[in-house]
UniProtKB/TrEMBL annotation:
Designated name of the protein: Beta galactosidase jelly roll domain-containing protein
Residue ranges occupied by any Glycosyl hydrolases family 2 sugar binding domain in the UniProt entry: 34-189
Residues annotated as domain Glycoside hydrolase family 2 immunoglobulin-like beta-sandwich: 202-302
Organism: Dyadobacter subterraneus
Pfam family, one: Glyco_hydro_2
InterPro entries reported for this sequence: Beta-gal/glucu_dom_sf (IPR036156), Galactose-bd-like_sf (IPR008979), GH (IPR017853), GH2_Domain-Containing (IPR051913), Glyco_hydro_2 (IPR006101), Glyco_hydro_2_cat (IPR006103), Glyco_hydro_2_N (IPR006104), Ig-like_fold (IPR013783)
Family, similarity comment: Belongs to the glycosyl hydrolase 2 family.
Presence of keyword Hydrolase: yes
Domain Glycoside hydrolase family 2 catalytic, first and last residues per copy: 304-586
Keywords of the record: Glycosidase, Hydrolase
KW Ubl conjugation (keyword) present: no
Length: 675
């Protein structure tokens, strides 16, 4: 979460009373929202550009009215449409000298053209990442007309994501719906002529000494007409209290019209360091002050490593369940209002989905903010979905992917929850093009962010390549394999190929309408996890998918949905949800004895064991919740057992125990017979 503040804008907003963002999270407190009512129309004959539908003289009465953020594919009036649409909005403005006005789109699917007051502002390609334009010179006093054309036709071989160029039947359709429109918030920010555009925060802890080194790279744009040498002050807070630090700042001169980077470094003592962990997600807040402008972001101090085919967080081994989440909800399409993000986060967290690649593209940044705050490990992936060798060799496709990847990384590089990036999903990784793509894109990505691990989701490891160099997983930090069957043999073969690299099953699962139905789906969870527990080199299992989703790909049901989820489209729970929750609970709870006392006063003695197979991690600060109260349980290392006594009152024959994480989320429910 990177936050911009301008004293001028904050004053303007409070005077106007316009700090209102509705039900969509915007991380910029100085944002001037442009969502709400817009004019809208389809352009199936592609007449809008020639007809200059972006001009103010166009008859606005011929447009419909919609509410932005808007997903026209989920709007009943336009749900079967594929092509170009137009949005228009008029807003008042009073120009101010010495300020720059930036127009922001958190995302628009897929190709977007922007005009302001009849003039072309710019174009952007990519459906899930943010982009912005400086519109200062396009604005005027009074009413301003913003016009936007958006095209969602990504059933093409040149878009990312998009169709494959292999002439196979149905491969014109990607695996999920190309939900189109202004799917995330649109807003303005007001900046001084010298302003902070972005900040990258890197924290490196010394796990032995308990100290940490903090470095920042502050990107500053100088839109003034003279060279500047900005002075920067840094403030770091932990739990809203300032952390006293001494900074070393490299002074930099930035020429007129140029962008510069100011680097700074400081050290934190052992007393000042609180590590970010899965169940103890400590967050710091850093603010950089440059004149009247500020930029700030949360960050966490943690160390992620791969050693001896294990994933280590702060030196401790972790093995975790996970799940892929497709951004899809009835009536919303790919829009993500706050309530839906919060609902999905809670359901995933309480199912034991702690480590996953969320999906094949960049979801709302609010999900990552919750993951930072409450603990979750995420692999973030840009939209290379099943690209063919010809596509991976195409210079235009490579350029588009790098652009989307950069936008993803620069938005999210301060989130401690993101521990790795993926450079694609299910592309032909045994081909020469796939090998070259993987190597090149990871090298390029490390230049952007050398602090993360790198991987990609392979489906070709299931074909049992003979040598490590036959498949592109040779270039990754850990293996990600999409495996739908024959799990034991596939996992053993992968481990034989790459014995030093841990394995994440990045996709696995079965549909709720396959043979055996929902009960069979729930049993599949138990069967595969039983195999995973025998293989200590498997660090994670990310179920495909947490939720059902709409698609036009072959095999989709007549109702438009693919029922892979452990929850339905409306998030109703299937039996597989409870099965997954049970299997992913990190603590085994067994009754040792039940002693009945006088007047309904009893004692229940339990044996608590932290799992040592899967999932497996240290238990700190957990509690057991009953109808009568909550009881903090002893800390447990993986494989460790301790007895624990709970006082009970009443004459119930059965008690329900809910294992609670220190962050307030359930980690499993156990029913105990009292006899």
């Amino acid at each position: 979460m990177i936050i911009k503040k301008s004293l001028f804008v904050l004053t303007l907003l409070f005077l106007s009373g316009s700090i209102s963002f509705g039900q969509y999270k915007i991380s910029q407190p100085n944002a001037i929202p442009l969502h709400g009512e817009w004019s809208f129309t389809l352009d199936p004959a592609e007449m809008g550009l020639a007809g200059k539908w972006y001009e103010s003289k166009i008859d606005g009465n011929r447009f419909d009215k919609v509410t932005v953020p808007h997903c026209f594919s989920a709007d009943l009036r336009y749900q079967f449409y594929n092509g170009t649409v137009w949005y228009r909005k008029t807003f008042p403005w009073k120009t101010t000298s010495g300020k720059r006005i930036i127009l922001h789109f958190d995302a628009a699917y897929y190709k977007t053209n922007i005009w302001l007051n009849d003039q072309k502002v710019g174009v952007h390609e990519g459906g899930y990442t943010p982009f912005s334009f400086d519109i200062t010179d396009f604005l005027k006093d009074g009413d301003n007309l913003l016009a936007v054309s958006v095209n969602n036709d990504t059933w093409k071989v040149g878009t990312i994501p998009g169709a494959k160029d292999n002439n196979r039947i149905n491969d014109a359709f990607m695996g999920w719906v190309n939900y189109g429109g202004l799917i995330r918030p649109v807003y303005l920010t007001v900046e001084p002529e010298v302003y902070a555009d972005n900040i990258k925060i890197e924290s490196t802890p010394d796990l032995i000494k308990g100290t940490a080194v903090l470095t920042t790279k502050l990107r500053i744009k100088n839109v003034s007409k003279q060279t500047v040498s900005p002075k920067v002050n840094y403030v770091v807070q932990f739990k809203e209290k300032a952390v006293a630090l001494n900074w070393k700042i490299k002074s930099t001169s930035i020429s007129a019209g140029q962008t510069g980077i100011i680097e700074a470094e400081t050290s934190l003592s052992a007393a000042q360091v609180k590590l970010w962990n899965l169940d103890d997600p400590n967050l710091y807040h850093l603010t950089a002050i440059i004149g009247s402008d500020t930029i700030s972001s949360n960050f966490g101090i943690r160390k992620v490593e791969i050693k001896n085919a294990q994933l280590l967080l702060n030196g401790k081994s972790l093995r975790l369940g996970g799940g892929n989440r497709v951004v899809d909800y009835p009536g919303l399409g790919s829009m993500e209002p706050d309530w839906l993000v919060e609902k999905d986060f809670r359901l995933m967290k309480e199912a034991g989905m702690e480590f996953q690649r969320l999906t094949h593209y960049t979801p709302s940044k609010y999900f990552y903010e919750l993951a930072d705050k409450y603990g979750m490990l995420i692999i973030s992936e840009a939209g290379n979905w099943q690209l063919t060798p010809r596509q991976m060799d195409n210079d235009s496709m490579r350029t588009k992917f790098r652009s989307q990847f950069r936008e993803m990384v620069e938005r999210d590089w301060n989130h401690p929850s993101i521990i790795a990036y993926s450079v694609g999903n299910e592309y032909e990784s045994k081909s020469q093009a796939g090998l070259k793509w993987t190597k090149d894109m990871i090298v390029n990505a490390r230049e952007l962010d050398p602090t993360r691990l790198y991987t990609f989701a392979s489906m070709f490891l299931n074909t049992f390549p003979e040598k490590p160099e036959d498949e592109a997983s040779q270039y990754v930090d850990f293996i990600s394999s999409n495996t739908y069957g024959n799990h034991a043999k596939v996992l053993d073969h992968i481990h034989k190929l790459y014995p030093e690299k841990p394995i994440l099953i990045s996709e696995w699962g079965t549909r709720a309408d396959d043979k055996g139905g929902e009960i069979g789906q729930a049993q599949h969870v138990r069967d595969v996890i039983a195999e995973v527990r025998k293989r200590p080199y498997v660090i994670g299992t990310s179920w495909w998918t947490y939720n059902d989703y709409q698609s036009r790909y072959h095999g989709t049901n007549a109702n438009g949905y693919r029922p892979w989820g452990i929850v339905g489209p409306d998030r109703s729970l299937r039996p597989a949800y409870k099965s997954y929750q049970d299997e992913m609970s990190p603590v085994l709870i067994e009754k040792v004895s039940f002693k009945s006392g006088e007047q309904g006063s009893h004692q229940l003695v339990l044996k608590l064991t932290a799992r040592n197979d899967f999932p497996s991690y240290a238990i700190r600060g957990y509690s057991l919740k009953t109808a009568n109260g909550s009881y903090v349980i002893p800390d447990l290392n993986p494989g460790e057992s301790k007895e624990f006594t709970i006082p009970l009152n009443g004459f119930d024959k059965k008690i329900s125990l809910t294992l609670m994480k220190p962050t307030g989320y359930s980690a499993g429910i156990k029913e105990i017979e009292l006899k």
